[in-house]
Amino acid sequence: MSLFAILSILIVLAAIFGYINVRFIKLPITIGMMLISIIFSLIVLIIGQIDPTILKLEQELIGGIDFEKVLMDGMLSFLLFAGALHVDFDQLKKQAWAIVSFATLGVVTATFLVGGMMYFILPLIGLPLDFIYCLLFGALISPTDPIAVLGILKKAGVPKALEIKIVGESLFNDGIGVVVFLTIFQLAQAGVGEIHFGEVAFVFLEEVGGGIALGLGLGWIAYRLMKTIDNYEVEVMISLAIVMGGYLLANSLHFSGPLAMVVAGLMVGNERFRTSSMSETTELYVDKFWELMDILFNAILFVMIGLEIILIKFEQSYLVAGLLAIPITLLARYISLGLPIALLKKRLEFIPRTDVIMTWGGLRGGISIALALSLLATMPRDQIVAMTYIIVVFSIVVQGLTVERVVKRLGAS
Predict the structure, then answer these.
(1) What pLDDT digit, counting tens, does each position of 283-314 carry?
(2) pLDDT tens-place string over residues 34-49
(3) What is the DSSP letter of 28?
(4) CA distances (Å), 285 to each of 85, 132, 274, 288, in order?
(5) Within 10 A of 90 (CB to CB), how many other CB atoms are there?
(6) Between residues 264 and 29, which one has the greater pLDDT?
(7) Domain spanning 67-409: which CATH class is it, in words?
(8) Do the Cβ atoms of 368 and 391 come closer than 8 Å?
(9) Could you state, in order of their start, the residue ranges of all structural domains in the chain?
(10) Cys bridge to 214: 99, 112, 260, 359, which one at CB 3.0-4.6 A?
């Protein structure tokens, strides 16, 4: 099946599922699209027992998509830039220490907590994993997904200061989480004894520092170019070039592309940047263009997540492991948030039960699935993919649908 055919089918399905959701189900778009896609896939599986024609078509469609490459090397750059573009920069600066702490210390702590707990619990159900693979699972499941978080928090009534913490953390811990995952992945490939701590630290600093520096550079280039012209068509193209060219450059330089896109998006979305470089017309068109990109790619992504279920191997033991992993990941996130909050509570204002709301509001999404699918066939890929998928579906559906209720019950709205 050609790339054009795959893309066409995905967009047609996204439009149909989106209509069904808006017209009848009325759930938040990310939740509705994924749920309808899963139900569609399950119906196809049932029909496939009688007539395998439709099942083979869906398997051909999903089999022709390299989920990890499509998301990590393509869609992610658009989604992160679009998400960062509409974040309140001044509010973000006020919460900078909290966001940095959650995105670094929180992610690393959660990675080791999840890895450690899974290492001791999985043998009890007959699925022992080497510690390095438990850490790998911890690394891919610990970062919260800004793509899932952004769409749902808008309707949850979360206080602005807390919303900025959750959204800012999600934008940055995504980039940090990918770097942690890649570092552990290299250790798993080469063997722990083959890589020295200095090399690991250098790779980490190169990815993170390089990504942030590149994002600043891209934002500055966009500013200088837009300031010298007043033509909304070209300025929209400049923003698009910054995203596509910048992400490509980040990958070639071995910098963190996600972090570069977040920083570039924050700069272009900054009110001071806009006031001095964009006319009102340009602002309107840039915002509308990236809002459309955000909606389109979000729709396609969550349709892909729902359809992916058709190729995942759900053995009974994998299902049990995935269900056990849900409370483990939630507990690890709760504990990992506690240390930064304790360190910063005298310096920053935290609303009551920030740790609980951030634990329940920290959703997992497509990035975790993409990282799990990037594992090698020589690794326990099927088991980790199945566990990851179960957590992501629970996170988006159960946590996503109840986060507003949790916020109101705790009196935080």
Answers:
(1) 999 999 999 998 899 899 999 999 999 999 98
(2) 999 999 999 999 999 8
(3) -
(4) 13, 47, 12, 5
(5) 10
(6) 264
(7) mainly alpha
(8) yes
(9) 3-63, 67-409
(10) 260
Structure tokens at 124: 């009890």
Structure tokens at 138: 């911890």
Q: Is 192 exposed, middle or buried (0-12, 13-18, 19+ CB in 10 A)?
A: exposed
Q: Are 34 and 306 contacting, i.e. CB atoms less than 8 angstroms apart?
A: yes
Which 8-state DSSP code applies to residue 283? H
- Residue 239: Cβ-neighbour burial (10 angstroms; 0-12, 13-18, 19+): buried
Tell me the C-alpha to C-alpha distance, in Å, between residue 303 and each of 30, 210, 242, 291, 376: 9, 33, 27, 18, 24
Q: Name the token pair of 172.
A: 């940055």
27, HSE (Cβ side, Cα atoms, 13 Å): 19
Tally of helices (H runs) and strands (E runs) in the chain = 21, 0
Predicted confidence (pLDDT) per residue in 315-355, tens digit: 999 999 999 999 999 999 999 999 888 888 877 778 888 89
Dump pLDDT digits (tens) for 68-113: 999 998 899 999 999 899 888 888 888 888 999 999 999 999 999 9
The helix/strand/coil state of 51 is coil
C-alpha–C-alpha distance, residues 102 and 104, integer Å: 6
Token digits for 52? 């395998």
Buried b (16+ CB within 10 A) or exposed e, 339-352: ebbeebeeebebbe
